[in-house]
Design goal:
- Helix content is about 35%, strand content about 30%.
- The radius of gyration is 21 Å and the shape is elongated.
- The strands form four sheets. The protein has an eight-stranded mixed beta sheet with strand order 5-4-3-6-2-1-7-8. A five-stranded mixed beta sheet has the order 9-10-15-12-13, sandwiched between helices.
- The longest helix has 19 residues.
- By secondary structure, the protein is of the alpha+beta class.
- The structure holds adenosine-5'-diphosphate and magnesium ion (MG).
- Adenosine-5'-diphosphate binds next to helix 2 and helix 4.
Length: about 325
């Protein structure tokens, strides 16, 4: 029902940045190599995500905004093996219930696309339309029908800051995908999408920073740690410059943050934070994610050993650069 969609929306879409993240993760799940995001009014007026992925088949399009209509789980096995980013089938219905939503989509093999328009959860239009291959989702007037939620939004600068931050981190997790962010006409970010992490870091954090970072690369059994970390004379007073990625997902993890600092602080004084992009590849059965729909919490089964591995990787990188 409409009410239950709006309640679910409270869980999944707290603010504009959560909508942006869900839409981008859907685009990534669809195998896109190019994702263009346009933001107007800090996401409250308009969020548009255009991708060149596999598209949504015409017969599935009206279903995509109904609850639990995920195309990503077909069996319990799928649930256990989950590699895609979304799997609850709640994002689109939730977004649809609290905005004016338009989806234009064309699977590459089709000759024309379809457009679906939904307002506050009610379908207004479903029709043929000319469209490039891929999917374009436009979310207008977010929370127009839930004024209480709208009141909880922070200033426009804060909301947009969160959006550009999450897009930056998503693009660092997927250097093989080209991300473009426009607000609304100004080009805020563009990554080349050639699969080179350092190129994406240059686009997100600036070329001057990228040039100074030290590469991290170490292996232990089936664990692999790769990424970049700043030298001790390029540090910040907050954790703002930290991007943690596990098997291509951006995550938050206090234990990993601590492990990085532990490796780092053996060499320099405490209370400063490196700029760091850390990519951890570990077997999917060695951790649990997801706990909460929007927060990417993660629990590692071999936490202690893994954190020692990370701290040691950081320590060794710094020692090699500053023996
Ligand atoms: P979930 O991602 O959890 O499956 P969503 O509500 O986010 O659920 O999306 C519902 C369904 O709509 C997805 O399972 C997928 O089939 C389809 N979909 C959404 N966005 C896209 C996209 N950009 N490209 C292709 N299919 C999409
Ligand atoms: Mg999704």
């Amino acid at each position: 029902t409409q009410a239950s969609n709006q309640i679910a929306a409270g869980e999944v879409v707290e603010r504009p940045v959560s909508v942006v993240k869900e839409l981008i993760e859907n685009a990534l799940d669809a195998g896109s190599t190019q994702i263009e995001i346009t933001i107007e009014g800090s996401g409250i007026e308009r969020i548009r995500v255009q991708d060149n992925g596999q598209g949504i088949p015409a017969e599935e399009l009206p279903l995509a905004v109904l609850r639990h209509a995920t195309s990503k789980i077909r069996s319990i096995d799928d649930l256990m093996q989950l590699q895609t980013l979304g799997f609850r089938g709640e994002a689109l219905p939730s977004i649809a219930s609290v905005s004016r939503l338009e989806i234009i989509s064309r699977p590459p093999a089709e000759i024309s696309g379809r457009v679906l328009r939904v307002e506050g959860g009610d379908q207004l239009e479903f029709d043929h339309i000319g469209s490039p291959p891929g999917t374009t989702i436009t979310v207008d007037d977010l929370f127009y029908n839930t004024p209480a939620r709208r009141k909880f939004l922070k200033s426009k600068n804060t909301e947009f800051g969160q959006i550009s931050d999450v897009i930056g981190r998503l693009s660092l997790a997927r250097p093989d995908v080209s991300f473009i962010l426009k607000h609304p006409k100004v080009l805020v970010l563009q990554t080349p999408g050639r699969g080179l992490l350092l190129e994406s870091i240059g686009a997100v954090l600036g070329q001057a920073t990228a040039r100074r970072l030290l590469p991290i690369s170490c292996v232990s059994g089936d664990w692999q740690l790769k990424g970049y970390i700043s030298p001790p004379d390029l540090v910040r007073s907050t954790k703002q410059g930290e991007t943690l990625i596990v098997n291509q997902r951006i995550i938050r993890s206090n234990s990993i943050s601590r492990a990085i600092l532990e490796g780092y602080h053996t060499l320099i004084p405490a209370k400063v934070y490196p700029i760091v992009v850390l990519n951890l590849q570990i077997p999917p059965h060695e951790y649990d994610v997801n706990v909460h729909p929007t927060k990417m919490e993660i629990r590692f089964h071999k936490e202690k050993e893994l954190m020692e591995f990370i701290a040691e990787g950081v320590r060794r990188t710094l020692l090699e650069a500053h023996p």
